[in-house]
Each structure stands twice: as C-alpha cells, then as structure tokens.
C-alpha cells in the first residue's frame, strides 16, 4: 500500500490482484464494486476494470486497511472491553448488553424508590428478580447471539434496543417501524429480527424499563400522588376563588370581580352572590375563515363562554373555554345572529331561574348551580351585531348614543367622529385650544351613561324587525336612532340591570389605534392618514388652514381652471339642432387654421348630420 513505485512494483501488482480476486468473490456476480482509491474512497460503485486502473493510477486509500466492503471480515472482538478494538471514532457503538444484564442479575443496576405510597405495577419489571425467571435467560441468550452470521458489532438484543432508540429520537410511527423491519428482513434473510414493533417492545419490557404515570393538575398545582393519589379534582384551584381567595384592593383591579359592574351586580342580585359556586360567564364571538385559502370567502362564528370564577391566570386559558355554539358559514350571520343564539339564551335563562343540580366534590353534597352572563367580548363590528346598535353611520358611537359628534368627509367618503375633548378633565388646556381642533372651544360634559331602562325606552320606538337575509331592508325613522333590532340578550331577566353589557377586545383597539397614530406621525406611504383627500376635507370643513392644499400665486391641479368647458346658451348657433347639443370636446382646445380639404370634410359632416336638410339629401 505504501510502496514508492506502484506502476513497477511486483508486490503492489500482486496485492491488487489479491484484492480484486477477493472483491469478485464477494460481489456475487455483480460487475460493479466500491472503488477504494484515494479519490473515490469507497463512495462510488465502478466496474472492476475501472477500479483496477484507479488503483494503479491513483493508489489505494491509505486508511482502508481492513477490506470490509470487499469481503474481508473484521478483526475486532465481540467483547466491548477488548483492548485491541478500534476506538478511532467518538460515536462508535459499544455493545454493553451482557454487562448490563450482569448488573441486573447482581442488583447493582436497579434504582428503586424508597417510598411507595401507591402500589406500583411490578409485573414484568426489574423488581421481579429477573435472574430467576426464564425471560432473563432468554435476554441473555439474545444478548450473546449475533445479529447476522459473522456480525461482531451487534447482537440481536443490542440491535433492537438501538433501533427502538432511533425510533424515539426520530419520532417514527409504529407503522413506519414495522415497514422498516419488513425491509430489513427482506434484505437480510439471515438476520435475527423481530416480526413487529410489539415483539420488539416485549423484548425491551423484559429489561425492566418500565414507568408509572402520575397525573398532575392541569394548572400545575399538585401531583395526584401519595396522599392525593385517589382524588378526582384538584383541592387547590376551584370555582370559588373569586370570593374566598381573591385579595381585595379598592385601588387595583386584578380580576373582573374588582370591577364596578361586578360589584353592582352583587348588590342587585344578592341571592346569587351569596353562593360562591354560582358561575359567572362572559361570552365571546367573532367570525373567521377556517381555510388556508383566504381568497375563498367563508365566515364561521364560534360562540365561546368563559368562566370568571377562576383566578385571572386560569379563566382565560383555552382548557376552560366552553364552545357553546358554532354558527356555520359560508356567510356571516350579521344581525341575524340572534336566530342562532336562541338555544343558548334558553339555557342561560334556565340556569338563572331554576338552576341545575350539581355535585360539589369538595363538600360531598349536591347543590343547585346557577349561572349568569355578565357581558360579551367582541370587536367593534360584532358589537353592532350583538347589541343591536349599528356601528356605522353618523351615530356609530354606542357610548355617545344620539349625542355622537360626527362629520361626513366628502373626499374621504366616510364619517369622522369628533367631540373627544368632552372626555378630558374640565380644566384641561386642550378644551380651549381652538386652532388645534375645529376652531371652537369645547366645554361640554361627558355623555351620560345609558342604563338598561334608558336603552329599553329607546327600543320602544323601534318598529317590527324581521330576521332573514331574504327580506328587504327596512327604512329606519329618525326616532329609532341607530337601533337595528331588539337584542335577544334582553330576554335575560338581569340583562337590563347590568352596568356593562358589551366589551370591546383589547387586541383590535391597541393595534388599530396604534397603527393609525404611528404611521401618520412617521408619514409611512400607503399607511398614513395624512393624504390628499384628508387635506381637501380640511379645506371644506374650514379646519387647520395651514394644512390646506390651496396657496396664493401657486397653481396646482386643484386650483387650475378647467379646460374644454362648453359655452353658454348665447354661444350656440340657432337654426341647426346639431349645434345645440351639450357636448364636451375631446382633448385640449387649440387654434387651428383648416385647410380646404379639412374644411370641405367638416362641412360635409355637418350637412350630413343635420335633421333640417335630411329630406333634401334623399
């Protein structure tokens, strides 16, 4: 291999012939073998004559001392502790199955817990003294039996354990594992391989690699272990937290129970608040497209109930959400959502008026469970669908109600809602800054909060509303304000007493307002609200004159005089109707001197299209 002159050395030629003879016998009639030259390095299959030329011209790989790919048996011993075994690779596999079984036999391998409160299953485990069982003798035999005749690297047991380890790391399915076993058995008929995954697992179970499942509380409170092993519910977290474990602080709101609406509900319905086990619910609903293809319009509306009896770090977890309804698509229900909410409302009324017999696991008694819907949570468009107050038009603000301050933007083609200074403190300086807003001071007070009785009084003016997409739209009168329907939630006996009936979710408020303000301040193209149409609307409204588009002595497309404007009635030529038509010439007006040819064509066109001379042309 290391001879200085390969082409002239008889010893090198004899070595090449010996190698090729061994390779031919190992190839079993196949004319292609791995090429062990310095460049191919056993990575490519080439014809035998080409391999011979590579060996003479390029030389054999000096690291290829054991011709294991060409029929030479490995010289390493089966024993992993053999000092003469190869230890060149850091990832080389060492078969220690016999040593591990010896440790199990002597009892030094077992790590037994000292405290066993629960009776752990011991059948088939290492606690059964495997040295006295027949299964242990079978394991020892499998650990000593080579995987293949002549294989010194893997035994039957070590190969199966290694294969199961790779299955776990790779996340293989049982079906794929069985398919691999079938392929290996077909490729290596003499191999000692199991028939299926279950047979492989049975060999692994005999080693004693068992485990015991210990259930835990979904909220990470306790383990159902030792003294809690036979409990069915967590003793730490329960549905009475809002009353028994909540810390009260008048200056801080940590939970909806700290809100004014919750406290007022307790005052109005003290019988409901006396039992902490009564459930308080919030309802959330919105439409979404369940398909990945957003080009396909589809809107499905889940109606989800949220229990507020739990702590704030639990009540909004998805494992406590209750999907009460799913309104199918493909179109949104819109204002007709009340039709689909009828079954839910009937159940809520039953929960409120009659209750449902429920077993309390903590007190081991049965009680009547009542429930109340505290409010809804949704975005602004869904607010209008659930409440019945349209969130479009000049009275879109449900808080300001009929006192909504709005303007129609001619060029923006939408409503602009003003009057935000009413919500500032009475002595705030912005109330007096006329030039920053609409040119007027604003000393108005906050709009009054509408109670349930006020809303019901307005709904009395509402006409007969029929649900259904097939019906024609009904014209609303001025007395109806922005009400589109009598919300189905007012069927709940307590709904009119709630101070806060509908909530807007924080996600849309934070993102949309932030985007509009930031993109306008940063003047981001395509996202800023400061555009040409908004400047033109400012001019019409008379606000912020310094932002208007018109400037003296500067001609723009908005101040430029119109071109090609028709003349008045006095400029029309009497006598021929063709000259009395109101038309707009195409293109820019120019002073041209017609040639005789063009003048003749124009005269012919006028005469040919005049009704007055049509009879003469016949």
From TrEMBL:
Q: Which residues form the Transposase-associated domain?
A: 8-72
Q: In which organism is this protein found?
A: Juglans regia (English walnut)
InterPro entries to which the protein is assigned, alphabetical? Transpos_assoc, Transposase_21
Q: Which domain of life is it from?
A: Eukaryota
A Pfam family this protein belongs to? Transpos_assoc
Protein name listed in UniProt? Transposase-associated domain-containing protein
